[in-house]
Specification:
This protein has nine helices and no strands. It has 282 residues and is mostly helical. The chain has a domain of 145 residues: Alpha Horseshoe (Serine Threonine Protein Phosphatase 5, Tetratricopeptide repeat), CATH 1.25.40.10. The longest helix is centred in the middle third of the chain and has 75 residues. The protein is rod-shaped, with a radius of gyration of 65 Å. It starts with a helix and ends in a 10-residue tail after the last helix.
Length: 282
């Protein structure tokens, strides 16, 4: 039993010594971190930003949760115009802060950075967070009023830009509709022109038919008429008071035949000794 009690006492004492050692190391780290921050502030005050930044980083290395190191490094970046890095450092300070005063300062500076970045609505929320931790700070209240006005103007500009974009879009849509309408009308005119041109060509074709030929039905009629004309040419009809060559030929042949018959009859009569009458009998 005594041995067990002794063991417990030894463990308790060892734990106490270990805890004390850790506390001493923590205190030493905090002291070193504060010294680095102090040195960094001096260097930045002398416009030696690079050396000051190195000291702040040493402070954060000694104590990653150092609010002072992050806060002052953020201020240094802010003065140099590196707002993105400044915002990151002040957010770290706000997250690591344990007192309202520390949180108030961190959120106040976050609001200032956001104002520089033209992120006014976010700045409004940052200044409100700062006032929650210190409602009596007139500077924060003044900055909040500026942020609200900036956010209002920002929203108006956004609305105006949207209206302008909508107007431009509507204008483009209207112009597109007009272009489509003009194109449609032009296509309609082209179709009318093509139709007129076709009608003119058809008319020209009809005019040429008298010279070059006629439709099939008319050609057939003309063919039949042509055949009749050929027949008439082959068998010409004599005009009144005028004999055709064929009639003359036939008449001559008939006369020759008649004359030949008469001659043969006369020869026969001579042979018989009968007188032939030269006058025609009535």
């Amino acid at each position: 039993m005594k041995r067990v009690l002794f063991t417990i006492i030894v463990l308790f004492v060892s734990f106490s010594f270990a805890q004390e050692k850790q506390d001493k190391e923590r205190q030493l780290a905090l002291k070193k971190a504060n010294n680095y921050v102090y040195e960094g502030n001096s260097l930045v005050g002398e416009d030696d930003f690079i050396s000051g930044e190195m000291e702040y980083r040493k402070a954060i290395s000694e104590n990653p949760n150092s609010v002072e190191g992050s806060y002052n490094l953020g201020n240094a970046y802010y003065k140099k115009g590196n707002y993105d890095e400044a915002l990151y450092r002040h957010q770290k300070a706000a997250n690591n802060s344990t007192s309202k005063e520390e949180k108030h300062k961190a959120f106040h500076n976050i609001g200032n950075v956001l104002m520089q970045r033209k992120r006014c609505r976010e700045a409004v929320e940052a200044f409100k967070s700062a006032l929650r931790n210190n409602p009596t700070d007139d500077e924060t209240r003044y900055n909040l009023a500026l942020a609200k006005e900036c956010a209002k103007q920002e929203q108006e500009n956004k609305d105006q830009n949207e209206d302008d974009q909508n107007k431009d879009q509507n204008k483009e849509d209207q112009e597109q509709k007009e272009d489509n309408k003009d194109k449609k009308d032009q296509d309609g005119d082209n179709k009318e022109d093509n139709k007129d041109e076709g009608d003119e060509k058809e008319k020209e074709g009809d005019d040429k038919k008298d010279e070059e030929g006629k439709p099939k039905d008319e050609k057939d009629d003309e063919g039949k008429q042509g055949d009749k004309k050929d027949d008439k040419k082959q068998k010409p009809k004599p005009q009144q008071g005028k004999m055709s060559p064929q009639q003359i030929k036939n008449l001559l042949e008939a006369m020759n035949n008649q004359e030949q018959k008469v001659q043969e009859k006369m020869n026969a009569e001579k042979q018989k000794g009968i007188k032939v009458k030269t006058d025609k009998d009535w």
